[in-house]
Structure formats: C-alpha cells, structure tokens
Prior knowledge:
CATH superfamily of the largest domain: HUPs
Strand order of the largest sheet: 2-3-1-9-8-11
Number of strands: 19
CATH topology of the largest domain: Rossmann fold
CATH class of the largest domain: Alpha Beta
Amino acid sequence: xxxxxxxxxxxxxxxxxxxxxxxxxxxxxxxxxxxxxxxxxxxxxxxxxxxxxxxxxxxxxxxxxxxxxxxxxxxxxxxxxxxxxxxxxxxxxxxxxxxxxxxxxxxxxxxxxxxxxxxxxxxxxxxxxxxxxxxxxxxxxxxxxxxxxxxxxxxxxxxxxxxxxxxxxxxxxxxxxxxxxxxxxxxxxxxxxxxxxxxxxxxxxxxxxxxxxxxxxxxxxxxxxxxxxxxxxxxxxxxxxxxxxxxxxxxxxxxxxxxxxxxxxxxxxxxxxxxxxxxxxxxxxxxxxxxxxxxxxxxxxxxxxxxxxxxxxxxxxxxxxxxxxxxxxxxxxxxxxxxxxxxxxxxxxxxxxxxxxxxxxxxxxxxxxxxxxxxxxxxxxxxxxxxxxxxxxxxxxxxxxxxxxxxxxxxxxxxxxxxxxxxxxxxxxxxxxxxxxxxxxxxxxxxxxxxxxxxxxxxxxxxxxxxxxxxxxxxxxxxxxxxxxxxxxxxxxxxxxxxxxxxxxxxxxxxxxxxxxxxxxxxxxxxxxxxxxxxxxxxxxxxxxxxxxxxxxxxxxxxxxxxxxxxxxxxxxxxxxxxxxxxxxxxxxxxxxxxxxxxxxxxxxxxxxxxxxxxxxxxxx
Length: 621
C-alpha cells in the first residue's frame, strides 16, 4: 500500500541539507501508512519520499524506484496502492522488449509509462486496473505527474508553491513542510461542515486533492489537472438475465484479482449482502479457509432497537454467513469506554487530518482495523456496493429522490449541517451560508451528469435516477473511501474494495434503473448475481448500514465533554458557536438508538475543537 510525499521546486536544489531535512520530516509523517521500509530520492529540483507497507514482492518492491536508460535515470516513481492487472501488463511489456528486475507491480507501472506514456501520461494510466496514487518524475522533461485512481480509492493531495508543488498521501505530509500554511478560510470551513466531496477544497487554504480519474502535470510553466476517466453513458442494451450474468462474471474476475498478496489476507464481514457475497467469492478462489472479521458493540445484539436507518443487528447474520461459507471468523467487540478512550479518539482525528467526522463510526472502524491488523495485512471490504447498485434507502424513497439537493442531505441517512440546530454563531452562519454552498456544489455536480441514450432517455424517473447514482458515486462515495483509507492505513492495514473495480462501475452505471430494481428491491442485480452463494436470510435481508453504538452512555459522555468545553474560555471552537443554542441542544433528551440527529452535531463540535488545537489551525474568515 504505502504512503508517498514529495516536493518539486524549479528554483532550488533540493539536495541541500535543509531541504533534505524537510523531505525527511514529510516522509516521517507517512510512517503509519508504511511501517515496513522507507526511502527518499533527490535529483536537483525534485525530491521524493516513500514509506512502504510490503504486500507484493516483499524483497523487490523497495521505493522510490527508478528506471534507468543508458546509465541515467529516465523516470523516478513513488507509488501507493495496487495494480491488479500487473501480471498481464508485464507480459505485454516483456513482449515489447522491456526487462524487469523485480516481481512488483510498481516496476510494471514504471515501464508502462515508458512504453505508453511518452506523449501523454494518461495513455499509460488507462492501462491500469487498480487502486493507486503515485508521483512520477521525468528528469529530462523536468515534469512531475501526479496520478489518482478512477474512483479516488487512494488519497493524494497537492499544494502549489511559487516555484512548484508539495504533495503527499495525506495533508499531514504536506503540512510538515514550512511552505504550507495551516490556514483555514471561509471556504475551507464550509467544506469542513458539510458532507460532500470537493477535490478543489481540502479545507486548508491552498490545499487540493488530485481529483479521482485525473492526472496533474507540474512543469516550470504551471500546474494542469487533466481527466483520463469519467462516468459516461454506455448505451446499455443487455437484457436483465444477460446483465446479471455479466455482473457475476465481473465479480468473479475482480475477486480473483484482488486476492493476490504475499501476506495474510482476510475479509470484513457485516452480514449484509455486499460483504457476504464478497466473502463467499473470496472463498471460491482460495485454497485456504478465508479469515473474516466483524465489528460489534457490547450488548448491541441483545438490546438492539430498530430505527429509521438500521432494522436489524449484524451479529446473527454474520455468524450465519461465516458458518455457511466456512470462514475462520472473529468478532471484534467494542465497549463504550473503548469508543470514548481519549487515545483512540485522538488517533482517529490524526488519521483523518480534517474535522470531517462520523463520530463513533470513525472510532469503531479505527479500533476494528487495529484489531484486524494483528492477524492480517490485507482486508477485502464491501464498500461502494450501495453506491454502485443502488442500495441505500434514499435511492428508493420518493420524497428524497424528488428533493432538489444531495439525497443524503434530504433523506434519513445523515444530517451534519450545523445550521439546522442553529449551533453556529448567527453572524458566522450568515457569512458561511452553508445552504448556498451546498446548493452551488449540487448544481456543479448535476451539470456533469452524462445524459441518457436510448428508450430510457424519455423517462423522467430514469433521468433522475441517473443523477442520483452519479451524485452518490462522485460526491458521497469519495468521502467514505477516504474514511476507509485513513482508518486502515493509520494501523498499516491495506483495505481493498472490489466493488470499485472500474469495469464493474462503468457497466452497472450504464444500466437502466429498471434493471437495477427489476425485482422491486434494492440492489437487484447484485442479489441475483450472488444469491447462489449465500444463505437465503442474507439474500433477503434489508440494507443495514455500518453499525453505530446504541448505548445511551456514549451520548451522555459526549454531552458532558461539550458542557465542559463551553466553560473553557480558551476553547478555539467556542468563538464559532451560539452558546445558548448549544445549551438548548444539551437539554434535549438523549437519543440512544440511531446515532443520528443531536449526536452527530455533538461529535462535530468536539472534533472541530480538538482539530483546531491539535493542528494549530489559524482561522482567516
């Protein structure tokens, strides 16, 4: 997997001692992402740093990696992620005359750029199937190319400077360089308080994400973001049975590709359709029994209370699937004290870098991954199946679909808008105008949606569902993928997401909504394609999102912390709040069921306060 960082400055020799120390500081921040090895490479205006989590070709995959041409460095690379089709690409490149010194996918990526990316690096990137973020330096052209995978599974940030750029897998790597200021302006605060991906706004002023499906070319003449992939209408003509068969074929191929690793591998099992199908597919393509892990909370199953979001607890379904498939299964059961433990909450914030939180869902995921890492280095996750196949209830709620905004903000799934309970200082709320910011983001996203072709183009509902699918895949999913990456890499665990295979995403995105719901339910195509692999109870189970603790004691602890925060005159977040509104929130009855509503806003305020303190943030509003 790994963590990468670096620096290009066309007016400096970065081999000087002071610059090397800054590169070392940047690289050190990525130690959690790469606990197995580290390396740096400097050549005049370019400096690359790498921390390695060894997964494939353990002795041969050291980085930074270079490609030599007649005794000179032709290309230098720092790479994070996995290229799942590297073996096929290696055969093609070998047939074209390329010679390899290792068995790593990193070396294949280097040679792919040498063979297919000479004119345009995007031509090489399009050959790759995987999750990746990498930086490629061409010493002859004096050009840096930053690359991010199609769906944004792996993160990559960059920060333009007067004479070049800083970059890193996470903001902390960029912020370790003195050229990067820890300043947040009004736009950055807007992004921190809303739940929608926006690569152009990474909260800290000047910091950007490489957009999913893009390369960023950095030369002496400037910086350009260039797309190499986007969701498009495919003119789907397959009937439902053919579509189901092709989905199954893609799933089989993807699962088999993503099982390749030279270290212990497992699956994350929730007892839902997505993770259960993935676990069953993994079992079909391995000779050893699959290890599976699930998260649970003390007393959760015994005392479960259904709510608007979660209708059933995971535990019984998890155990049924584990027995049916034959996995070696482990439950990771967490207590409220563990969820509220200051060290775990601080580690979670440090992993995310940004005050974008889902509260106990973040902390429990971090603790789950920490426990899994004691047994496995790679885990397969069912993340993104809901966005690809239309699994969330909001896809199927007429009022939510009709709402002229992001569906997750109109529906029941989450509510993180701090203006709704009026927690923000009135003048600040007026200045930020969060509803206006969300509206502008929504309109920008709608303008990108590819039009429908064929008979479906005349159906208003098909057109709207195309928009809903696009919004989830491009504005909601990236936030979840970033959360998954940060929590896992904070403990050196590589989490793979087979449902993000771009071939599967392209194919299913292009299918009519009537196909995706042909049996009158959510995720019809996935259910039909994998029903033979699973117990009927799991096939018929209604979607239940990642669990959130229902212990009322958890919210009471949050309220106590927020009440204490209000009494602190030095609290950095206090200047942003309306204290009377906060006290009114604290006086509301405790919600011990869903983890939504008041609790989300409690978490958000506490996270903001800790973030301002821990990251030394300067507000410039």
